[in-house]
Structures are given as structure tokens and as C-alpha cells.
Amino acid sequence: MPTENELLSAVDALLNQVDQNDLPPPAERKRLREAAELSQTQIAKVLGTRREAVGNWETGKTEPRPPQRTAYARLLEGLAARFPAPDNESPSEPAVPETFTAAPALATAAPSEPAAPEAPARPAATARPLSTSRRPGAKKAANATAPTAAAVDPRFENGPLAVVDCEDGQVSAYCVGGLVLDVPAKSIPSLVDWTLKEAKLGQPKLSGPGKDADPLIVLTQSALERYGLPVTLSEEERLAGRIPEGHKVIKQLARADWKLTKRGFGPWARIYRPAQGSERNCVQLCIPSWNALDTRHWGEAGQLAPADLARLLSVYASRVMTPRGSTAVTGLELMTAFHPPTRASEPDSNGKRHSEHNPGSLGKDPVDCAPCEAPDGHPLLKDLPRFHTRTPAEKLFEEAYDWARPLTDAECTKRHLVGIDVNMAFAAGANGLTVGLGAPTHVKAPVFDPKLPGSWLVDLSHVDLSKVMVAKDKWAELDGSLLPSPFTPKGERPEGPAWYATPTVAYAVELGYDVTPIEAWVRYDNGRYLDSWYNRLRDAFLATMADLGVDADLSPADFLAAMDGWRHRDPQLAIVVDAVKATVKGGLGKLRERPRGEGWRSGEPWRALSRPTWRPDIRAAVISRTRINLHRKIVKHAAFTGQYPVAILSDCVVYAADGASPLDFVPYRDGKPLPGGFKLGINPGLVKWEGTQELLWGEGVREQFKAPELNLARYIKDGTVTNVDNGE
Question: How many C-beta neighbours within 10 Å does residue 104 have?
């Protein structure tokens, strides 16, 4: 006969079995929490457990046990009453996964195709699945890109990176797709070891002769405290860009035979051991509270919760590449990732391979620029007199537009000023562009070749914009006084010989005028170095905008509607868009990086000059082509509509119009745009609406600041004029 205690225990066991059926399925638990806009941390705090436990309950890995089970069941019951399941969705089956979830790098994905979301396989390390956090109430964007099936590289099955956080003494690594790993490491050296040996983080190479991306570890403030690092840098450390060499963590790394690069232990620290054959031992650290994620490019990313930050950075990594530093550094590294300087040769007679130059790359050694391409202070110019100002005949000056003019009487009768902006303008300028790969060759009295990249000294002052060729054998008469010159950033007509990149000179020929170069620095070794770089960044931009509901195939009206409020649909993905754009501009800017302190003096070399990717000629060619692309559209538009821009700033153009929408002045005939002119759309090179202000606003601010040629394109977005436009 059973005792009383045995009977009571049997009854409790039976009740527990009944309770098991009272809980909804794991997917429904997650749906209810998200519908109520509750985080796993909030639920864990109320139930007296860890947030990882809540994540396990939502994936079905584990089931809650008493006493939390009863309270959890009551919570879910209450949420179910407030947030019933949609009629078209069964609570017993998981909902369709959102395309917003970041994807691990895909081994089989083509370099030009964005990686698709896919749940990572169960890692060898202790793993705790956790649903990816997102903006409360976020819904799947219309026309979002559908996931594509591809195999995950088993070496990097947990994604390219992890955000390491510490809570209640437990260190956790937040990975792609919401996966959370337990981190046993108790020091930075052991964290590096764990990352390389157990975490299964990294990203496959983007090209055949390239290298796999090193794993990225992002340290939150709590993780910094856990591992003995300062939460923020002192002013002295911030200016130095690193913590002192005598810091205890650096000593720990040295004792463990780990090394730091020349930039030391700063916001983007690289910790490595010399490679053993093909085996690389390197981990990249990112420290947001040390300003690793510059707010100008990453917005509030550094303030996000660990899971949200992991999601955001993983989307960027899967679609662009694992960040290697600032967006500018990453943009430059992306170029090299597609065109590594060396490759393995064919086997020699002994079957051994050797390192050799990789065709199409910039090589492993820097080359000197032409004197005209050198920025002020370059060693090539050290013999110039002090305070000498170089003229256009001495210096290549290819920059973006900063031009404006007074309104005509006819334009003053219009009601609005409408700004349009070219999407990814500099990326579009790089697309299909032939650039120099090797050193320049000096040529006297050359015959101009539009297919030969280089810098040309030529007089273009005879080009008259009042009569230009707008198509083959078709001339157009325009009001040249209302157009900026395509040959100078300020839109002024050149007064004599000046240095220009190939696209600028080629445009003069396209407009119907002969050119006779005086001399040139040309590059016979050339190629379309930036094509893969452009394709990757274009696809990243388009895929992310599609996730935000802005598809590439929308009609003009639908496109304008989709762009209205796109940032608010998913603020984290909006940050990714900004970071992609910054990667384009920053990467191109790095091609002509200037001295950054370090006691530099004019005429002396600076650190960036030792890179083969220090190529001011490539930067000049991209900017030249970007400016020319915009001018070509402006001329086509003027010839067809009689409308002329009143201001241009880089890739933003302002027109006076009767209506407030771009559709009030951008011509469409039978739904088709003007060939070669402006076209509304999200693709790079197409335009979007930048902003609209009343015409009286423009005249008012010009009068207020006593500046009749104040560049209104600078302020068209929101109408706020913060200070006088000095043209800088």
C-alpha cells in the first residue's frame, strides 16, 4: 500500500503532465511575447529566471519547470486573450520567418548576390537559441527579397561575428539569427582562443585568391568591465586612438604570445599570431563605447541591445563584408577582397606553387602618382616654393559639384523649389569605369583616347554650353548662362589649360567639341577594378531597401509613396542603408587619404602612401565620371523641357517648379522617362525626392544672409539654414 507522501508525489507528477498541455507551442509563445512588445529580458525578470531560459522555451529546446511554469502559463493565457492568433495562421505552427533576420555568410553565394537569411546549424559550443530582437510591431516589408537556399560553410556556421555581453556574471555571445553562445573565457586572451577554436565565427572569402574574413567580436560595456578594460577612453586615449601599451590586458596578450597591429589596442583592435602556412590566427575586436561605430555612419547602433546589434552588424557583414574598421576602412578592404594583390602560381617542375602578381589587382607595392595628381604636401611637391598655390594647369582638381545661381524672373513665378537626389551616385560613377592599375606614363602632345585612363592637360575653355550635341548628330541650343560648366566643381567656365581625368575630357568630345591635350599621364595597365566592388554594394543597398518596402521595380508614383517614411519601418535596417552608403564614399575617400597628425610635415611621406590602394587617380576618375553623369542628365532635361537647375550640391539638384513633387517636373511620356535624363527609382544612378520648400523660402534665406548665390541644395531637405554658406 503506497504511503501518503508517495500518493501526493504521484498526483503532483500527474498534474505536471496536465500542465504540459496547458502551454501553447513554442512558436506561439514567441508570437504572443512579440505581439505584446515585450522583451525576453522583461519576462525573465518577472519570472525570476534568465533571458536565455525564455529563449529556450520559445524554441522548444527546454520546457519551464515549477514554479516558473505556472506563472509563465498564466502570462501566456492572458496574452492570448489580448492578442489572438490571426485567422490565417495556426498557433501550432511557426510563422513564416521574416526576411529581416540577418544571414550568415554563404559559401556558395556569388559575390554580387546578397546572402540570404538562414538559421544557423547547432554549434559545437554550448548554444542557446534566442529569437532575434527587432522593433516592436515590425512587419514584413512589402516586396521583401525572398530567401535563397544555400549551404552554410561549416567552419563559420555561427555567422561572421558575435556581440559579447555580460549579465549577472554570465558571459554570452550573441550571433546571427538570434543564436546565443555561452562564453567560458575569463580574460581577453582566452576569449581570443575561444573565438578561434570553438565559436565557429568568420566569413568565406569573396574571391578565389582571397582570404577568409577573420571573426569579429564586439564588446559591450559590461563585457569590457568583465575583462578589465575601460568602458570609455580618456581624452588622452581618445586622441591617441588606443589604450597605453602598459595596460594589464595588453600585458596578458603578450604573455600569451598574441600580438597587436601598429594601431594598438583601440576601438578596432586586431589580435593575431603570425600565420602558420595557410592557417591564420586573427580576431578583430570592435568596441562601440570607444566610438568604433561612428554615429555619423552607424547612427545609434552602439546603443542597441546585444541581440539587436548582432542582427544589424550581421546584415551588413553578410551583404557587404565583415567590418574591418570604420566604414571607410571597410570600403577599401572590400576592394582588396575582390582583387587580392597576389595569387598562387601554377605548380613548377617540382610541383610547388609560388606567390605571384594577381592580374587585375593593384599589386602588393605602392606606385607613385603623377605630380598633377599629388595633393598639396606630397613628397613629389617638396621642391615647390613655400606657400605656393598651384593653378589648374599644375593640379588635377576633380571634385563634386557645389554650384548655385540666382533665379530668373520666370522661375520666380513658380511656387516651389524641389530637390532630387541621385541614389548611390558615386557607386554608379564607379560602375563599368576603366581605371589605371599600374604606374603612370608621361606623354607629350598625346592624341586623346577616351578609353585610356589618366590625367590630361588640355584647354576646354572653348566648349560653349549654348550649343551642344545631345545625341548622335543632334545639336541642341540651350541657355548656357543657366548651366554649370561640367569641367569645374564650382561650375565656372575654365579660363585656360587645366588637368582633367579621362571622363571629363571624353565628355567635352561627347558635347561635340575637339580637344587637343598638351601633355598627359596615362596608365596603359588598366582594367575595371571597381566592378565587383560596385556590384556588391549595389546589391547590399537594393536588398536592404527591398526589406524596407522599397522595391526596384516600382512605378514612379509607387516609388515616391514607398519612400515616404521608409526609415521608420525598421530603424535598424535603415542604419544598414546608411552604413552601405558611407562604405561607398569612405572607401573612395581612402584612395586619397591625407596625413592624420602623427607629427607630419609638408613634403614628408605619410603612412597611407605605403599602401598600394593609395590611388588618387582612381578617386579622381570616379568623381569625374559621377559629376559628368549628373551634368549629362541636366543637359538632356534642359534640352527636352527648357528647365534648368538653380542649385547643385554633390548629387542633389534643385529645380523651380509649380508643384511640390518631382513628378511635377521630371518628364514621363506614356509612363517612360526621358532617355538619358532623370528617372525616379531606387537603383544607383536613378533619383529620389530630396525635399521641397516654397520658393519664397529660398529668396528669403538668400536675402537674410545677403548671399544671392547661397546654395539652396544644401538646405532643401528640411529648410533649416544653420549658418552662412561660405562655399567650403
Answer: 33
Q: Which residue has the cell 540651350?
A: 478
What is the per-residue pLDDT for 123?
38
Q: Nearest 5 degrees, angle CA 333-CA 336-CA 342? A: 140
Report the alpha-carbon distance of residue 684 to residue 271 in Å, rounded. Answer: 37
Distance CA 351, CA 675 (A): 56
Per-residue pLDDT, 151: 67
Q: Copy the grid coordinates of residue 232.
A: 570609455
- Beta-bridged to residue 457, according to DSSP, are 499, 519
The count of other CB atoms within 10 Å of the CB of residue 375 is 16
Tell which phi-psi region holds residue 45, choosing left (phi > 0), alpha (psi between -120 and 50) or beta: alpha
Residue 365 φ then ψ, to 5°: -115, 140
Which amino acid, one-letter code, is at 332?
A: L
Closest CA to 117 of 134, 299, 437, 125: 134
Between CA 671 and CA 679 the distance in angstroms is 11
Across the chain, which distance is largest between two alpha carbons, in Å?
Answer: 114
Q: Which amino acid is at 457?
A: L
Q: How confident is the model at residue 51, as a pLDDT?
A: 78
Rg (CA), the chain: 30
Q: How far is CA 400 from CA 326, 551, 667, in A?
A: 23, 28, 25
Q: How confident is residue 409, by pLDDT bands cut at 50, 70 and 90?
A: very high
Q: Residue 34, Cα to own-chain centre: how many angstroms?
A: 29
Q: In the structure grid, which three cell numbers stand for residue 546, read together?
A: 527591398
pTM: 0.80
Alpha helices in 101-234 (DSSP H): 188-197, 221-226
| Cα of 436 vs its chain's centroid, Å | 25
Instruction: Indicate if the pLDDT at residue 9 is higher than 90.
Output: no
Q: How many CB atoms lie within 10 A of CB 169?
A: 6
